[in-house]
Amino acid sequence: MDATAIVRALLAAEPDALAVASLGTATSALRAASDDGPHLYMGGAMGSALAVALGVAEARPERRVLALLGDGEVLMGAGSLWSLAGIRPPNLLVVILCDGHYSITGGQPLGAPGRFAEVAAALGLGTAVVSDLGEIAPSLAALPRPALVEVHYAPGEWPGPSPFIDPPVVRSRFEQAAAEGSS
Known about the structure:
Elements: H1 3-13, E1 18-22, H2 25-34, E2 40-42, H3 49-59, E3 65-70, H4 71-76, H5 79-87, E4 92-98, E5 101-102, E6 108-109, H6 116-122, E7 126-130, H7 133-142, E8 147-152, H8 167-179
Parallel strand pairs: 1-2, 1-3, 3-4, 4-8, 7-8
Antiparallel strand pairs: 5-6
Helix pairs in contact: 1-2, 1-7
């Protein structure tokens, strides 16, 4: 199981969700899995993707929102887990791609255990831990929102760097996608 296959399964299970991806593996996999769909890629903003997804969920309560994060991203923005638990947006699903490494910077170990689902459960959130593609759709379907899903995959299967796209283009495409389906 690699990150791009994981994201393809997530998109199939949540086809109409607005996706916010952290930099690195999450963005590269989302771009590869969706043919560079109109998603919000948080390149260069390490640790902020969950906070941004919380804002998107608040701004578009009628839409499902998918926060796609790497495990290193979550460690750098862990305080957002407490915000998630306090705000509790009923339309937000957080998925953490867990390989135990900072893949984008050369594969250094995280230096901390990836126990994100345990933390989220302690904060009162619905959680699941997945390590097989076939578990993704049933796990997502069973979880009330907000929820956090930890998806484990083998390190070293980074989808590679994403080609640069102009941030105003990313913003414009995402705003258009977010407006679709709004009342």
